[in-house]
Amino acid sequence: MIMIGFDMMAVLLLTELHVPQKVFLCRAKHDGSFILRIVPPTLLAAEKEEAKAVLTLFLKKQGLSNAVAVRTINKSDAFVDHLVARLHSVHKSRYLVGRELTTLEIRDALIPYLETVLDEYGPIMVDVVENFPDPPVIEKLEEVVKQPVVENSVASVSPPIPTTVDAKKLKALARVSDILPTGKLPSHIVYLVELGMELEAIREVIRKFPAFAYYSLEGKIKPVVEFLLDLGVPKQDIPTILSKRPQLCGISLTDNLIPTMTFLEELGVDKKQWAKVIYRFPPLLTYSRQKLQSTVDFLYGMGLSAENVSKVLTRCPNIISYSVEEKLRPTAEYFRSLDVDVAPLLYRAPQTFGLSIEGNLKPVTKFFLERGYSMEDVATMIQRNGALYTFSLPDNMMPKWEFFLTMVYPKSELVKFPQYFGYSLEERIKPRYEIMTKCGVKLLLNQMLSLSEEDFHKLLKKKMEKNT
């Protein structure tokens, strides 16, 4: 044990003390001295791997391919060390008592931080990560050519585009703005604009995925667009799909897209719903068959029938993006701990399984327990309204709870009808309650909110006549 007369808690890298590859954590004693604990090198190495995995997953969710994400990680040792240092700072109390962090705790600590980095740096986040701690130099394209609209051409009038000194990215972005000697934009840009895609939207795609600027019109972009149109995707939806997943245009139709669709149809996706499925979640067709199969195997393992698996994949295709071992299975175990039947919940509200256990699920459970409901009540509410956990506590549930307390209903009414939280407070709940009160009658919460406008007034009239 080493005693140091610092007057504040700190996390020290042992390299500063000339002891390599270990970390000291300091804890204050009552006499003002500090105790240093050593994080074992094996634990430190494991934490670095966990941090790399979290960073890789985060970058891929921003549209980077797996290869690009891996290359970025290989250049980002300093940033990974920075992430590990943040773990020690956020969870210092855990280390001081000698408890290792779980994978979920590591992710919940790092992902919000990575999101703040993304918010601050946007399209240059990769450069920030690779050059940490020295920020990349930000430059602007010195001039964007301005041309009036001429016949069969598109004007390119827009402000300069912030970008980095990365030559490839500059060159890619320039392809969106450069006017050819003919006075026109490149054909693939004109084609995208004619589809309804804004120039700024095209630039944003290229900032995130520069390779898109080099896709040929006839060889890549047009065949995929026509394929989507043939599936029944409305023309106005194409820009949204390409913005969400430009990599679709880089995938072979015959070797990848069509075989993947056939594979998904065999797993249960309704072929008649492809237009809606792709619009909801364009990345679906870019996942490996192994990843697709693992998710389907999980759904079957939870007790869903083949028909229900089909409906889940069709209604909520983004469930494929959730990691089975890091997201789906832990979430299922959490709901089982509440004595909830997981299969019906997965079928009715699969989007709930994409939520954070610590950030979303546990706070909602705590919300109801603190207001006097039993765990059995909470389980019943979840079974009756699986989407309950998708609502925001401060923006949705708390205001509606406060108004509920002003009404004439007992708290047990929410157990019977937890769908209450899914109705608009200002447009549905308050107006109908006011009308009901003025009429001098009382309806069940379910009757007051779920009936159509016509049936609601018919029931009010019937109740009023009965009371006279």
From TrEMBL:
<keyword id="KW-0806">Transcription termination</keyword>
<keyword id="KW-0732">Signal</keyword>
<comment type="similarity">
    <text>Belongs to the mTERF family.</text>
</comment>
<dbReference type="GO" id="GO:0003676">
    <property type="term" value="F:nucleic acid binding"/>
</dbReference>
<dbReference type="Pfam" id="PF02536">
    <property type="entry name" value="mTERF"/>
</dbReference>
<protein>
    <recommendedName>
        <fullName>mTERF domain-containing protein, mitochondrial</fullName>
    </recommendedName>
</protein>
<dbReference type="GO" id="GO:0006353">
    <property type="term" value="P:DNA-templated transcription termination"/>
</dbReference>
<keyword id="KW-0804">Transcription</keyword>
<dbReference type="InterPro" id="IPR003690">
    <property type="entry name" value="MTERF"/>
</dbReference>
<feature type="signal peptide">
    <location>
        <begin position="1"/>
        <end position="17"/>
    </location>
</feature>
<dbReference type="InterPro" id="IPR038538">
    <property type="entry name" value="MTERF_sf"/>
</dbReference>
<keyword id="KW-0809">Transit peptide</keyword>
<keyword id="KW-0805">Transcription regulation</keyword>
